């Protein structure tokens, strides 16, 4: 097992209770602010000690309450990249990298890492003289100097503008593909997790609510919390009224499902891109709408004729004139093959 984390940690009224095991080496942790993402990374790094449980990487135990093992942070071989990269502001790039190296191998290794991370010409600069991309590469170079078995990215892209974020994510993917250790990327940005992770876990109120293959998790998030965090705007509590039929309370309509409905289902969801104009099975009558204009898409916030909720519907701007040549539709379809059956 590449990574095993089964820990509990109570802090005031908040409790972190994590059960995560995977052989995958590119792991994404998705969660909203305050869900416990950073606390989980601090427990792995040894900055925070759990109350009980076990943390192991490739069979090497970092922490075990049962075996009374609690390795010091410097013994864990864990590299931690903070959101602001945490470079030493009064040091140059080469000094930042050298700070974690032994004197005997320092000069040669610093040169190798500057070459590897394309920092030639920036080695004498301090962090405030570097671009965002150079800062990230310098932080990675310093991190790799410690030869970590696991790299943890704590919201490493969240402070960047959209263009730079995409460029640096591409650079990170190139780096990860050649790195043999485990990478954990923690973020509240679903797109980032989808791009970087092979295995994803959704953390909600200190617990893992869903986990599995990253792309499959987005297709079938299984819980309402995971659906929201993977971008599903439309979620309604339900009453089950048949083997394959339910009533969506917020939308005031009955819906047929493609498969049998498990007894533990408490909500239904549908993504805004999966709705289409039409009538018939699973159609929803509308009483009005609001519009949000975006550069390449239009979002319609639909008001169902019954119920007290709303439905978000996204379409390409280029399709609007064709779709609505006879006026705005009076009904839309929530296709049964696209419905998400969700539990708590």
Q: What structural class do the secondary elements suggest? A: alpha+beta
Q: What distance lies between the first and last C-alpha atoms, to the nearest angstrom? A: 28 Å
Q: How does the overall form come out from the CA principal axes?
A: globular
| Whole-number mean pLDDT | 91
Number of strands: 21
Structure description:
Strand 17 (283-293) and strand 18 form a beta hairpin. The chain is α+β, with helices and mostly antiparallel strands and 344 residues long. The strands form 4 sheets. The protein has a 6-stranded mixed beta sheet with strand order 7-8-9-3-10-11, sandwiched between helices. It has a 5-stranded antiparallel beta sheet with strand order 2-1-4-5-6, with helices on one face. A 5-stranded antiparallel beta sheet has the order 14-13-12-15-21. The chain contains 9 helices and 21 strands. The model has no long low-confidence stretch (mean pLDDT 91).
Which helices and strands occur, and which strands form pairs?
Elements lengths: L2 E9 L2 E9 L3 E5 L6 H9 L6 E6 L2 E5 L4 E2 L7 E4 L11 H6 L7 H11 L15 H14 L4 E5 L7 H17 L3 E6 L2 H7 L2 E6 L2 E7 H6 L4 H6 L4 E9 L2 E4 L4 E4 L10 E4 L5 E2 L5 E11 L3 E8 L6 E6 L3 H4 L7 E3 L6 E3 L2
Helix pairs in contact: 3-4
């Amino acid at each position: 097992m590449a990574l095993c984390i089964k820990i509990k940690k109570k802090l005031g009224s908040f409790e972190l209770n994590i059960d995560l095991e995977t052989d995958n080496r590119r792991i994404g942790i998705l969660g909203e602010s305050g869900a416990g993402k950073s606390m989980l990374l601090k427990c792995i790094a040894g900055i925070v000690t759990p109350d009980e449980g076990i943390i192991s990487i490739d069979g090497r135990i970092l922490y075990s309450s049962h075996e009374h093992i609690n390795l010091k942070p410097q013994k864990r071989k864990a590299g931690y990249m903070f959101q602001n990269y945490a470079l030493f502001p009064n040091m140059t790039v080469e000094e930042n990298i050298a700070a974690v190296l032994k004197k005997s191998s320092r000069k040669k290794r610093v040169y190798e890492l500057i070459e590897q991370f394309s920092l030639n010409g920036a080695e004498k600069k301090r962090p405030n003289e570097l671009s965002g991309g150079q800062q990230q590469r310098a932080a990675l170079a310093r991190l790799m100097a410690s030869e970590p078995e696991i790299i943890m990215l704590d919201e490493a892209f969240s402070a960047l503008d959209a263009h730079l974020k995409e460029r640096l994510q591409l650079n990170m993917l190139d780096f990860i593909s050649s790195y043999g250790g485990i990478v954990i990327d923690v973020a509240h940005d679903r797109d980032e997790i989808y791009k970087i992770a092979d295995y994803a876990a959704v953390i909600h109120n200190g617990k893992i609510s869903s986990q599995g293959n990253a792309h499959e998790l987005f297709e079938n998030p299984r819980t309402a919390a995971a659906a929201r965090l993977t971008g599903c705007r439309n979620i309604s509590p339900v009453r089950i009224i048949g083997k394959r039929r339910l009533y969506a309370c917020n939308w005031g309509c009955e819906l047929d499902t493609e498969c049998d409905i498990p007894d533990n289902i408490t909500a239904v969801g549908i993504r805004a891109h999966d709705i289409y104009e039409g009538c018939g099975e699973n159609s929803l009558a509308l009483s009005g709408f609001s519009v949000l204009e975006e550069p390449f898409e239009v979002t319609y916030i639909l008001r169902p004729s019954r119920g007290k909720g709303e439905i978000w519907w996204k379409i390409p701007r280029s399709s609007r004139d064709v779709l609505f040549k006879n006026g705005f539709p009076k009904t839309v379809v929530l296709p049964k093959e696209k419905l998400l059956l969700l539990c708590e």
